[in-house]
Amino acid sequence: MLYLFILAILMNIFTYMFYSREVKFGQERYDKTTKKLRDSINLVSGKLAEADYFSLEHNENAQNYFDNSASGGKVILYEKLIPVVTEKLLDLNANPNGNPYTGQDKIGPNKFIINKIKILNHRWIIADYSNGELWGEVLLKYFVDNDDNITFEVNQSWLYQK
């Protein structure tokens, strides 16, 4: 009986030590993983802020350009302007000769169309275009007049080699 009692006490001690260390190990692993994830989130947030530095959404000076209320003009909300400008530029892809604001003429059977647009500020747009085989980028100027008409002008276009 004495041996059984001693064996039970030893098993209880070993079991207690095992589970207490397992909890401690699990907590340390959780803390380490949480720290890594927080660092990764901070790194990605920093990179996103860096990438969005040149965008109308984060450029207060460019946003203020559309606020003409002080001079008696009207206010253009940049939140509503961005999708309108993007849609108007992408609608020009339906042209049978391709989008005229790619700065490229039709080469072969495929037309050049704009794929992706980034509005940099109150005046500049950068866009990616392709015809399925060739790819390029274009820097555009855009203007919004008092009647909310939007016009575009190709500043510079670049077509990458195959």
TrEMBL record:
It comes from the Bacteria. This is Uncharacterized protein.
